[in-house]
Amino acid sequence: MHYRQSNNVDWKKFEQESVLLDLSSGYYFRLNAVGTYIWPLLDGKHNIAEIVAEVVKRFEVSQRQAKKDISSFIQYLLAENLIEKG
Amino acid sequence: MRDFAAKLLTLCRIISGVDGEKCRIAGETETPTDLLIEQLQYHQLIPLVYYYRQQLQAAGWDFDQGTIELLKSYTFANISRMMIVEHYLQHLDRLFKKNFIDYRVFKGIVTAKSVYHEDYLRSFGDVDILVRADQLQVIESLLQREGFTHAEDLYSNFPEEIIQKYSFARHFNRAEPYTIAMDVHLNLSGRLHPFQFDSAEFWENSTAIIINGGTILTFDREYQAVYAIYHTFKHYFFKLIWFIDAFLILDQKQLDPGKFQQLVKKYKLTKLLVFYSQITLDLFGRLPRAIQQIRFSSQRPHRIINAQTVLQGTLPYSQSRARILLPMYYLPGWVRRLRFLWTQLFPPIETIRNFYLQDGPQKKFWNYFNLRCRAITDLILNKPQEE
Fold first, then answer.
1. Nearest CA in chain B to A17
2. Residue B288's closest CA among B352, B351, B221, B205?
3. ipTM of the complex
4. Which residue of A has its CA nearest to B75?
């Protein structure tokens, strides 16, 4: 499954973290270092397995834990309309 | 409060690049976090304090982890705010261009974009634009179509012709989908202000700044500097951020000191600039590049306004008293001072706000006289009044 960032979302890095701004509502979301690393990978080209592999490579985390955390992160982003399928 | 003032002084010295050892906070007592945040918010300094936290800590400002997290959260909010304003300005620029509307952006966003290391370091509320009088109606209807409404503020009770005549700014707010406040100005100074600018000259001397990849026009650096000095005065030197703005604008290598001095002379701001410079030297430990040649006749801080009162964010005067009495110090010449004093004590009848309040008195000379007597009594007794 592939996901890509919604058009109405702007993103800005700040130190190791970042801000996601939903331009249709004005709500902003603060991403931690892992979320900030994942966000550019949600480009419609990387699938979940590839993203999990990248995160495991970059952070000290097991594949199982990474898969679980990334799935819930993606569900959250979907629920907030910050990303879409495809 | 003295402890807090010492902390802010350290911040000023770090910003100006003065040796950290010379500005160590001595004998720090702990400022409660909520009071600290409240004071930093007042001075619009939270992102700056977060940005310089390591240097501030090295200079003796002791932050606990909770305070740092709080400062960081506010900084994140400011980043998102900057992103919103950038996007909205880009949209507004497209809308205005489509409708052949010419405008200049100035103050907060321009300063944030032009002189700070990172734009999010400069907190600001409203977006200020200067527009042409003949395009005002079109602009108002466009803003209304965009969901803006007139803000309920000091001027909203005045009839349109009085707002035009005295060059009051129009304040607009939009709450959905996100909050944007916009001040639309026809002039850079109101007709009752002690200093008058030739807005057309500012308009003609414009430069482009980049916002979200697009270009938006603002005033040239020298004009921004003149306005920044005036702005600190206009608000009675209450907030440290205005001094930091002016310092950074005047410290730019690209700013032409000769051109700046000419403008200061032209707009009769020399005395005000000297006054500003004395406070700036005490705050920052050095003068910014463009005014390094300024010499002072006295090294003594002014007894009413000085670096300490700026750092504490308070004056011994109420705002209404400050508005009338402070120009007595730096307006050039007694004739101008007395004229200003007279206008403040007896302003044109149509600019007395009380007349426009729903349950206010009728517009009769006797009521005007009563209101003025009350205002002058309040002034002498140092009571707050708003007009």
1. B76
2. B221
3. 0.91
4. A14
